[in-house]
Amino acid sequence: MLTASRQAPPQMGKPLLELGVTDFEKVLEIRDREKSFTRGSLHKRGELLTGLADGWNRMGNTEKARAYFERVTRDLKGTAYEQKARAWLEDKSEAKAPEFFACTGCHVE
User: Fold this and answer.
1) How many angstroms separate the CA atoms of 37 and 35, rounded?
2) Inter-helix orientation angle 42-58/62-75, to 10°
3) CA nearest 59: which of 89, 22, 95?
């Protein structure tokens, strides 16, 4: 949903973005409650936290976005996810590009 919302017209993209963020919030809540978040792969953890951070940012809630980007810097040190989160936190121009927070990981360079 988060990825689809990027390319959709705003009237279609906004509901997709909201649904994606809501779904990601539920997944993170379950993983945190079960204490299973850290057992997931780097890709799964990074995409979940970065998706939430970017999603909240795209919906205009920079406070929630900041909290998730800060969690990325704590939980995913030394990774591409941390580098991207720091770019956003430091207000770097590249972090403002629409595709900057698109999928990162094994199949994307």
Assistant:
1) 6
2) 160
3) 22
What is the per-residue pLDDT for 109?
A: 45
pTM for this predicted structure = 0.91
Task: Return the structure tokens found at 80.
Answer: 């591409």
In the DSSP assignment, the letter for residue 101 is: T
> Bridge-partner residues for 105, per DSSP?
108
Q: Where are the domains of the chain?
A: 2-96
Which contiguous run of DSSP H or E holds residue 13? Answer: helix 10-34
Q: Quickly list DSSP for 67-83.
A: HHHHHHHHHTTTSHHHH
| Average pLDDT of the segment spanning 23-41 | 96
In whole angstroms, give the CA distance from residue 103 to residue 77. Answer: 18
- For all residues of the chain together, what is the average pLDDT? 92
